[in-house]
Amino acid sequence: MNLTQPTTLDDGPRIAIVSGASRGIGRAIAERLAADGLAVVVNYAGQAEGAAQTVAAISARGGRALAVQADVGNAGDVERLFACTQSHFGRVDVVVNSAGIMPIAPIADDSLDAFDRVIATNLRGTFLMMAAAARHLGNGGRFIALSSSVLAKNFPGYGPYIASKAGVEGLVRVFANELRGRNITVNAIAPGPVATELFLSGKSEGQIAQIVGQAPLERLGQPDDIAAAVSFLAGADGAWVNAQVLRVNGGFA
Ligand code: NDP
């Protein structure tokens, strides 16, 4: 144990895996980390075209990126995602698990399918990404999970989603403790409403305005707002932030 030295990042180009980076917040995170100088593995589930666009945007600015399909809820897929990263880039420094779904479903008998799907992607996916990260992250590594500020709202219909993200926040604190001694930080970012398909789809303009108006800053979050916070946690200035849930939401509390 070193009681006096600040944590430092390993030398050399750093490598990030960003899950769910074919669109939305994950894409903004991938592009931001690439702008910060990291090579990025752009994970996606089904939208190969979206992932290719993320890779193209990074390459156009001189960055390095690789698209890899994998379902974060599938153990074999997650192992392949990390193995591809190692074989292509040789190391893993930052893992951001942004892949997520948000089916709205009241707690009732016919909601079990939605519950199982959201737990499989959001919670089991986070668990599997953490397990692989524990095996692959090196000194100075960073794991960043995505939770949600909607946890505090208890909106009807959000039961399965809130259950999954409450689980994610629990895993973050335990995982940080389990990585003791390895100079790896584990945190979550909990966005408020952000202008992506996940938030916008199925809502009327009135519903969106009503939700957005709850933040004192009175605007809808943008994917880049979240990517900026990830950049901080993944970079040198975030080194002393560990086992935290950072609520990035314009005051939507
Ligand atoms: P989007 O719906 O815009 O994008 C979701 C992304 O996740 C896509 O790239 C999708 O891939 C990927 N994905 C979905 N399921 C899987 C899976 N099983 N394996 C791998 N990738 C998967 O969502 P957002 O960008 O808005 O959300 C990103 C994260 O932020 C989520 O965890 C969400 O819960 C969280 N969040 C979002 C908020 C918001 O208001 N938008 C607020 C709070 C939290 P593909 O397209 O290839 O299928």
TrEMBL record:
UniProt entry keywords in alphabetical sequence: Oxidoreductase
GO MF annotations in UniProt: oxidoreductase activity, acting on CH-OH group of donors
Gene3D superfamilies found in the cross-reference section: NAD(P)-binding Rossmann-like Domain
Start and end residues of each Ketoreductase domain: 14-192
SUPFAM superfamilies recorded: NAD(P)-binding Rossmann-fold domains
Protein family: Belongs to the short-chain dehydrogenases/reductases (SDR) family.
The protein's name in its UniProt record: 3-oxoacyl-[acyl-carrier protein] reductase
Organism: Plasticicumulans acidivorans
Organism classification: Bacteria, Pseudomonadati, Pseudomonadota, Gammaproteobacteria, Candidatus Competibacteraceae
